[in-house]
């Protein structure tokens, strides 16, 4: 076909379809009433935007914020414009009554007739857009591949009738982009795929908090984390039964897993954790209140950080087995309250560290009422509040073995560490330790002290070339035992 003829054909088609016909192909943001309903776009603060509405997606009229649009069952209204929120005090949100389903491309609300795949430069663009819309039964499409800070934050906050989340294809995230996006969506039954492998600060923070019908968490493939990226992401998802099999990141960031599964009372299996490098409060309260969890994941890290495991399993009352804790170099508050309230825990992990730090074991086993024997404590010198309330409330605890010779190496080293333990038990310590005081901050009242040599003298097995091996209580153990052992009359630590 000759070029002139081709141009003539294109012009003819344009005249036949008209501009309105071309625009009709755009998938505009649409609301359909499932029953008699009303909808309006209500402004908070100050927003400068040109928004238009249509009943057919062809003929458009200017819309004034906070104007109610009444819809009969089956009727539709379309929105388009150059809208964008700009801050938590300058945004607009839809207010609805009745039952309304949303469809179409959300980008037409900000890009008008020419929707793009980018929200670059539009931080807070759709912040709280459907917040509190209990009438919303379905969500529009969210096709953006480039995001901006807080662009979808709180977008569907407490949309309790929303059962299905829209696809979220973006792989490049931004600070707070999905923060609280579906918080309180109690009808949500499935989470969208989250393909991003590089996180941004608080990008998924509180994203599904309180989604009580969510049963399976999506795969989380990210290997590069950011501050608070998974912070309380699934907290109080009481129906959640399955977590991702693996959290593959080797290096963690500050508060990255904090509260991630807190309050997930039906979670029975924890994800495997690959991390070997901890960060400040990275796992703080990660599984708090996961009462159905019976086994903890392996924790291979030897490079700890301040508060890294702080209250990680707090009130996991079904937890029966604790993970090995191989670190020999500690950080301040690193194990604070880690197993507090784990009433089903009967055996504590070995604690091989010999150099302590401030509050390193503070409240670590507090109220573990099933615990009978404390882990051996090989450190010879104490640090400020290092053992404070460590075994407080362990009502069945009846055996403690220590290697320190002074209670006063630092302030409050053992304050209330044995408050409300068993009325009788055995306390084994070096001969130099002053055991004249019996109270909740030293040796428990009513307990027997063995401090003649700091250990019980084991009976040697002459049939063995190396002699039998005993723990510090004089109990015979095998080569797999971890902690302080005595062999051939000499004491050493098995790690």
Describe this entry's structure for a reader.
The structure is a single chain. The protein has helices at residues 3-23, 108-111, and strands spanning 29-33, 37-44, 51-54, 61-62, 69-71, 76-81, 91-97, 100-103, 136-138, 246-247, 272-273, 399-401, 426-428, 448-450, 469-471, 476-477, 483-487, 490-494. The strands form 5 sheets. The protein has a 6-stranded mixed β-sheet. A 4-stranded antiparallel β-sheet has the order 16-15-17-18, with no helix packed on it. With 495 residues, the chain is mostly beta strands.
List keywords for this structure.
mainly beta, four-stranded antiparallel β-sheet, 18 strands, elongated
Q: Report the sheet-strand fraction.
A: 5-15%
Derived structural class: mainly beta
Annotation, overall tally of beta strands? 18
Chain-averaged pLDDT: 91
- Approximate helicity band: under 10%
Major beta sheet, specifics?
A: 6 strands, mixed
Tell me the distance between the termini.
Answer: 83 Å
Output the number of helix runs.
2
Spatially, the strands of the biggest sheet line up as 4-3-6-1-8-9
Q: Which regions contain 5 or more consecutive residues with pLDDT less than 50?
A: 6-24, 454-465
Q: Helix-strand pattern, N to C? A: HEEEEEEEEHEEEEEEEEEE
Radius of gyration: 31 Å
Shape summary: elongated
């Amino acid at each position: 076909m000759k070029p002139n003829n081709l141009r003539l054909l294109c012009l003819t088609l344009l005249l036949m379809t008209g501009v309105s016909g071309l625009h009709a192909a755009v998938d505009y943001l649409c609301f359909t009433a499932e029953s008699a309903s009303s909808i309006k776009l209500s402004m908070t603060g100050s927003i400068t935007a040109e928004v238009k509405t249509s009943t057919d997606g062809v003929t458009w009229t200017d819309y004034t914020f906070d104007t109610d649009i009444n819809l009969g069952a089956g009727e539709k209204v379309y929105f388009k414009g150059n809208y964008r929120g700009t801050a938590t005090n300058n945004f607009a949100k839809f207010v609805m009554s009745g039952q309304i389903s949303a469809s179409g491309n959300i980008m037409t609300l900000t890009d008008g007739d020419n929707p793009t795949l980018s929200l670059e430069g539009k931080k807070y663009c759709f912040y709280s857009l459907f917040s509190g819309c209990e009438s919303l039964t379905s969500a529009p499409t969210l096709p953006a591949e480039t995001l901006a800070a807080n662009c979808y934050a709180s977008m569907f906050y407490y949309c309790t009738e929303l059962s299905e989340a829209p696809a979220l294809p973006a792989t490049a995230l931004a600070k707070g982009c999905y923060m609280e996006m579906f918080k309180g969506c109690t009808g949500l039954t499935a989470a969208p795929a989250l393909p991003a492998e590089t996180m941004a600060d608080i990008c998924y923070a509180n994203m599904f908090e309180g989604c009580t019908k969510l049963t399976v968490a999506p795969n989380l493939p990210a290997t590069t984390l950011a501050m608070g990226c998974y912070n309380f992401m699934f907290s109080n998802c009481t129906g959640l039964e399955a977590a991702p099999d693996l959290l593959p990141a080797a290096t963690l960031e500050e508060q990255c897993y904090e509260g991630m599964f807190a309050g997930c009372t039906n979670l029975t299996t924890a994800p495997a954790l690959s991390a070997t490098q901890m960060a400040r409060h990275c796992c703080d309260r990660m599984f708090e209140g996961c009462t159905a969890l019976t086994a903890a994941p392996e924790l291979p890290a030897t490079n700890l950080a301040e508060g890294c495991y702080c209250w990680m399993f707090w009130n996991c009352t079904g937890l029966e087995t604790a993970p090995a804790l191989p670190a020999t170099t500690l950080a301040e508050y690193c194990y604070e309250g880690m197993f507090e309230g784990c009433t089903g825990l009967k055996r504590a992990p070995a604690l091989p560290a010999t150099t302590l730090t401030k509050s390193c074991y503070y409240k670590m086993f507090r109220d573990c009422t099933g615990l009978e024997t404390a882990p051996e404590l090989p450190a010879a010198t104490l640090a400020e509040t290092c053992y404070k309330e460590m075994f407080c409330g362990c009502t069945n605890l009846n055996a403690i073995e220590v290697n320190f010779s002074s209670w006063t190496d630092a302030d409050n080293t053992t304050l209330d560490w044995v408050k409300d333990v068993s009325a009788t038990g055995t306390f084994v310590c070096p001969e130099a330790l002053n055991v004249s005081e019996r109270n909740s901050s030293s040796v428990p009242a009513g307990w027997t002290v063995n401090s003649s040599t700091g250990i019980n003298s084991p009976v040697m097995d002459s049939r063995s070339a190396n002699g039998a091996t005993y723990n510090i209580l004089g109990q015979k153990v095998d080569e797999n035992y971890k902690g302080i052992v005595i062999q051939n009359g000499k004491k050493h630590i098995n790690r």
